[in-house]
Amino acid sequence: MERSKPGVPKKTSPHNRLHELRESAGLSQVEVAKRFHGGVTPAGISRHEQGVKHLSHVAVEQYGEIYKVWTYELFRERIGGDDAWQDGQYRLSRST
Question: Whose CA is closest to 22, among 45, 38, 43?
């Protein structure tokens, strides 16, 4: 069983780009929380960004809509130009 250091939350989610995408969109955690359907607080947004709070499928879809990206882009890292991506641990796509 993996243990975290005292006072440091244990990560439960794969690496994500939520913080990077929020800053690129010019939004604060408060603004994102207001756009989120389902009562997520700014503290909850912070926990999602840190990977310490589980991201439900619904939350992933909402982040995709808020940041205007495909859901798989929430979990991938750019490694070069606009079309160069490296897979994250999970690959999700926007449902149609």
Answer: 45
What tens digit of pLDDT does each residue of 31-71 get? 999 999 878 999 999 999 998 888 899 999 999 999 999 99
CA separation for the pair 82, 96 (Å, rounded): 24
The domain spans of the chain are 18-86
Q: Are 51 and 12 in contact (CB under 8 A)?
A: yes
C-alpha distances out from residue 74 to 4, 38, 56, Å: 24, 19, 13
Distance from chain centroid for Cα 71: 9
What is the CATH number assigned to the segment(s) 18-86? 1.10.260.40
